[in-house]
Known about the structure:
Elements: H1 6-24, H2 29-65, H3 72-97, E1 108-114, H4 118-139, E2 142-150, E3 156-164, H5 168-172, E4 177-183, E5 194-204, E6 218-223, E7 239-244, E8 249-253, H6 258-281, H7 283-291, E9 301-306, E10 311-314, E11 319-321, H8 324-328, H9 333-357
Parallel strand pairs: 4-9
Antiparallel strand pairs: 1-3, 1-5, 2-3, 4-5, 6-7, 7-8, 9-10, 10-11
Helix pairs in contact: 1-2, 2-3
Amino acid sequence: MPALPQEKLDKLVDRWEAVQAELNAGPDPQSYAKLNREFAELDPLVSSIQQLRGAERELAELRELSADTEMRELAQEEMAALRERIAVLGEELQILLLPKDAADDRSAIIEIRAGTGGDEAALFAADLFRMYQRYADLHGWKTEIISLSENDLGGYKEITASFSGRGVFARLKYESGVHRVQRVPETEAGGRIHTSAATVAVLPEAEDVDVEIRPEDIRIDTMRASGAGGQHVNRTDSAVRIVHIPTGITVVSAEKSQHQNRKLAMMVLRSRIYEQEASKLADERAEARKSQVGSGDRSQRIRTYNFPQGRVSDHRINLTLHKLGEVIAGDGLDEIISALITNRQAEQLAALHDEANA
C-alpha cells in the first residue's frame, strides 16, 4: 500500500475542525446548509484518520513495552494483531481518499428506451423502470416521471424520470448502457425464447448555477399529449417541448400541468447540456467513462437478464447471480451495483500502487 499523504490528512482534519467551529457559531441558513454538506463529507474521512492514527500510537507504545523482557511476548502478540488492523484501516482510508466524480452526490435523470425486439423490448423497458423505481423506494429517493410513451401492451417505448436524493448518481451511473433480456415474450404463442434490449442513460441532475440557458437560445412549444394507447393518452393538453437552439437538444414533458411540464423539461435540458459540456471540457472524464465500468457508454452491452435460467449477468465484471427475480424486483440490484463500485475502487487502488512503485 502506498504511503498515505500525512500533510493532506492534517489539512482534512484542520478543515473538519474549522467547519465544526463555523457550524457552532450559528451561521445564516444558506451558509449552514453548505457547511453541513461539507461536514457530512469530511466526517467519515476524519473518523477513519483518527482511528488509524490511534492504532499507530498504540503500536508505538507496544514497541516501547516490548523492550521490557517480561512484557515482550505479550506485546509482540498484540503488535501482530494491531499491524493487521492498521493495514485494514489504511486500505479503508485509501478508498475514502480516492477521487470521486464531482456529480456523485447529485440526483439523477434516467432515460430508458426500448431497443431491438419491438413490443417485447418495450415491455422490458417498463420492467427496468419498475426495477429502478423499487430500488429508489428502498433508498428513500423520490421518483417523478417526466415523459412517457407507451405501446398498446403497456410497455414503454421510452420513459424519462427524475430520481431525487443524496448520492443517487453515485450508484445509478453504473446502470448506463444496453440491457439485454432473454425470455419467452407475452406476445409469443409458440413458447420460443426471444432476445430483446433496452438502453439506459443516467445523467447527473444539473443545477441552475451549472448551466446558463439564455431565453433567446430556447424555443418553447405547448401541444396536446398523444400516445399509442393506455392510461396516458390525452392525459393533458399542456405537454411542453423545449428546443435548445445552439445544441439542437430537444426535451418533451407531458405528464403534469403546463407549469410543471415546463419546469421538468428545463431540468432535463440543463442536465443534458451539463453532461455534454462536461464531456467536452474534460477529455480525461470521457476517457474514464470508457474504462470505468458502467459510466455511460450506452452502446456497450452491460447486462443480460436470462429468465429461463433465472440468472442475471453483468458482463463488465463477469458477475453472474442466480437471483433474477430479486434483481428485477429492485431488491437484489444493490448486490450488483456494490460489486461494480468495489471493482472500480480496486482499479483505482491498483493504479495508485503502480504509481507508487514506478
